[in-house]
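Table 4 source record.
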Amino acid sequence: MTDITAGRPPAPATDGTAPDVTEPPLDTEEAERSADEALGLKLGTTTRTEIDDYTQLMRGQVALFASAVREGGGVAARGSWLEADQLLGRGPADDCLVFAAWTHVRDLARLLRRLVAEYGEQRAHSAPALPDHTSVAVAGEAGPNRLWRPEPPDAPASEHAPAPVASER
């Protein structure tokens, strides 16, 4: 099996203490954008060099997100990490057909998309929940934002009728 490493060493400590283990979150937008670009490569118009360049980019991002997802825990996370490990371990040879290299970079891009989604879910579950504001307001009472809610159509007529419009006069 291939050992997947995050590729980012911890930041060096400046005051002689242990390094800070809290890393900034991975750039999910950049990863999604690069995965979309890799999936957009056309077989007949893309050179082998371009495919190899995208393969290197996808391999690095898959390794980063796979290790981040694995650290998040869970059975699904372990399954995704194992799939990433297998896919990274069986890359195309230098003398393989362009189709095999193109298929491999597309497999990496699809896996990267899934890893980014799992990473986002893990971060969403680990983030503190926002306070719940219930928006239950009785007709005629101000809601939580002090806005008046419209009355339902079957509600009795209000004592406050809107002013007639010029065309109604």
